[in-house]
Structure formats: C-alpha cells, structure tokens
Amino acid sequence: MTENGCIFCRIARKEIPAKLVGENDLALAFWDVSPRQPLHILVIPKLHYANVAELTLNDEKSLVSVMKLASELALEHAEESFRFSFNTGAGAGQTVFHAHAHLTSQTPRSESA
Ligand code: 5GP
Ligand code: ZN
Q: What tens digit of pLDDT does each residue of 21-46 get?
C-alpha cells in the first residue's frame, strides 16, 4: 500500500533522498531533517498507514518490524536513555500522515548524531 504524494512513501521508495540509518524487510529508518533532540531518528513502515493505530490494527508484522528496528537503533545510538513517540492526529502534533516512530534521546553515543 502506498499513497501518491506521501513524502514518507516517496522516501521508502527511494524516490527522494533521506539520510538512511537502518532498514529491514518492512521498516526503514532515517535521520529527522529537523532534529528536536540530540538524537532524532524516524522509523517508518515501508507500507503506508496513516498513523500508529492504523498500523497496529492492520499489520502486526510491519509494527513488529518498526519496533525491532527502532529498538536496535536505540541500543546502538543512545547512550543511556531514549524515548519512542508516535504523534497521532494534528492536535497531537502529527504533520506527516504516514505512521512513524520518533526515536529521540538527550544522550546519543558520541559517534552518533
Ligand atoms: P510528526 O510531526 O508528524 O510527528 O513528525 C514528522 C517529522 O518528520 C518531523 O520531525 C519532521 O522534521 C520530519 N520530516 C518531515 N519531512 C521530512 C523529510 O522530508 N525528511 C526527513 N528526514 N524528515 C522529515
Ligand atoms: Zn505514506
């Protein structure tokens, strides 16, 4: 499932560039273009779901792939603590309507970020 004009679908199809940081069969990770924490990575399902609830209720394999990739990258790139967040709905700050986990940390490992 893809959506024309969805910027994260276009990144998943490698049609527009992003600074990739990891990938598995069903998920892709790249650095946020406008980081709001010292470590700020986005992890997306390769298939299009509008938000984390749509992803979870429709595609458990993609959900697990997103969370596995996010967890691997958190352990690799965050020194001590980190956060996963999914803004859902404009009122909660969602601006890109393709499900994505924000992996953020105040304590990146020195070689990261
Ligand atoms: P949201 O506000 O929807 O939770 O998060 C969307 C995130 O995507 C924001 O943190 C924003 O900086 C990031 N973003 C938006 N467009 C692009 C892009 O084209 N490339 C990258 N790498 N990040 C983007
Ligand atoms: Zn999309």
A: 999 999 999 999 999 999 999 999 99
Residues within 6 Å of ligand 1 by CB: 7, 18, 30-34, 42, 87, 93-96
Residue 97 pLDDT > 90, yes or no?
yes
Domain definitions of the chain by residue range: 7-105
The preferred substitution site among 32, 87, 98 for testing ligand 1, maximizing ligand atoms within 8 Å of CB, is 32
Q: Identify whether 98 is a catalytic site residue.
A: no
State the architecture of 7-105 in CATH terms: 2-Layer Sandwich (3.30)
The strand pairing partners of 101, in sequence order, are 43
Ligand 1 atom 12 nearest Cα? 34
Strand arrangement of the beta sheet that strand 27-31 belongs to: 20-23, 27-31, 39-45, 101-105, 83-85
Taking the model in full, what pTM does it have?
Answer: 0.96
